[in-house]
Amino acid sequence: MTTERSERAGQPEKRGIGFVADEERTGRPRQLFAVWAAPNVSYLSFAVGATLILMGLTLPQAIGVILAGNLLWIATGVVAASGPAAGTSGSVISRAFYGVIGNKIVLIVTGWLIASAYLALNWSAASVAGIGLAQHWGLPASAGVDAGVICLIAGVTLLVAIYGYATIVRLYAALSVLLTVVFVIVTVYVLGSVDWSYTPAAPLHGTALAAALGAGFTIIGSTALSYSNSPDLARYLPRTSSITAIAGWTAFGAYLPSVVFTSVGALAATTLDMADPQAALETVLPGWFVPVFVIAVVLNTVANNGMTAYSASLSIQSVGVRLARIPAVLVIGALGTAMTLYAILVFDFLTSVNTMLQLVVVSTGPAMAIAVTDLVMRRNRYHGELLLRQERGGPFWYRGGLHWAGLVALLAGALASVMWVSTTFWTGPLATAAGGVDLAIPAGMGVAALAYWGIARALGTIPRSYGEGAPEGAPQTEDSTTKGSELCTPTSS
């Protein structure tokens, strides 16, 4: 098959889900640190950290939840390793989990709707800050100004997604340094106002404490679980790149800033009214620094949503919509912008954040568990050119285009998660019976992983070995791996 040439920084990337040939792959895994750090040096982290204190947790309890919840970035890192192995996007690799047709169904939810919702969530955070700055500069408070700020932030973000991989790698290296400097300065001012002896007015105990800890873990962990797109940027690394290095730099790049700045949000909430995070933080910052802080918030959102829009455009192509990558970016951007306008003009920001972060894990948690389980079962042996074949009877067509192991596992995990989720919008029956304790993440991921492993083994759809001459990663049933001495084990990618 023909392949498109890699793009350069400063030029729009035309490549979509097409296979990245070995000779076009450059870079080293350590570059992934900055790629993942820039989106997670985040204003939204301040808001999420403050939420833990507003829920009634003590500082040690909040910090413990932050440290534990962010460990789920390890799963994001592990899944990223499939990118160099396959040489294509995560939305194509997932055909191995769900089948060619089944994958399209799953991507409509995980690749479009949830991606659009995350675009809206992050744009809402930046827009709240940007609208405040516009009013500070004398612009009138009106729906028209609010809409203009939202559309401006969205437009800059979509430019990043349009320019793509090479620009993201170059730009995010600089942004990670700039954003870290700004947010460290914010941290210094926050630390000067922290009540280190803080205790909640009504300390939580027993079931109430368990419920707050469970909800907090779900809120913190949901961000890492939303990044099943981590192979999209790693696919440009050489096939021989260390799996440990890819997983480590991805996970550490996201984990470190997430832990630090979410903790700062929790510390700030000991003395500040973080129901309005921007207004609260501005009370401890010098006046001259407030515009710098707001601009940093906007830049962070551009970095975060730039990656999301980039991957969502690939998901649109993977579903089979006949759009080039750049028009696909514009489609997903329009949907996210519409959702942002609705969220800002209709709903309370902090309530929207918490509810969404708790609800999306119903699908993202099981989907991440399935991706990790498949990678382990295949030992990261994926073949991009085979994954890109969609014809009936192809290697990932399975039965009728559906891989029932993945689809049943996803539904089972989602059902388990729904039964255990606890939000103001919905509380599952098992969570209710347990006094409101939210175990949506461990329940959903655990059930999905076990179901996928068990059903795939029973159906024999995950290969253990391959026929001689077969491309690395070519699917065969377990039965077929026992039919002759011509079978051999492929070299590790």
How does this structure look, described?
The chain is an all-alpha fold and 493 residues long. The chain has a single domain, classed as Hydantoin permease (Orthogonal Bundle). The chain contains 22 helices and no strands. The chain is globular. Mean pLDDT is 81; it is low at 1-6, 465-473 and 475-493.
Kindly give the count of domains: 1
Low-confidence blocks of residues:
1-6, 465-473, 475-493
Cα(first) to Cα(last) distance is 21 Å
Q: Which geometry do the CA atoms define?
A: globular
Largest sheet: none
Which structural class is indicated by helix and strand composition? mainly alpha
Q: Taking Cα atoms only, what radius of gyration do you get, to the nearest Å?
A: 23 Å
Mean pLDDT: 81
Q: What is the H level of CATH, i.e. the homologous superfamily?
A: Hydantoin permease
Q: What's the CATH topology name? A: Hydantoin permease
CATH architecture: Orthogonal Bundle
The fraction of residues assigned to DSSP E strands is under 5%
Q: How many H/I helical runs?
A: 22
How many strand segments? Answer: 0
CATH class: Mainly Alpha
Q: Fraction of residues in helices?
A: 55-70%
Brief summary:
The protein is mainly α and 493 residues long. It is 65% helix and 0% strand.
Helices and strands in order:
Elements: H1 31-40, H2 43-54, H3 59-69, H4 73-80, H5 82-86, H6 90-93, H7 95-98, H8 100-136, H9 143-163, H10 165-191, H11 206-225, H12 231-234, H13 243-268, H14 277-282, H15 290-319, H16 325-346, H17 349-359, H18 361-378, H19 384-387, H20 404-420, H21 429-433, H22 440-459
Helix pairs in contact: 1-10, 1-13, 2-11, 2-13, 3-11, 3-13, 4-13, 4-18, 8-9, 8-15, 8-16, 8-17, 9-15, 9-16, 10-13, 10-15, 11-18, 15-16, 18-20, 18-22, 20-22
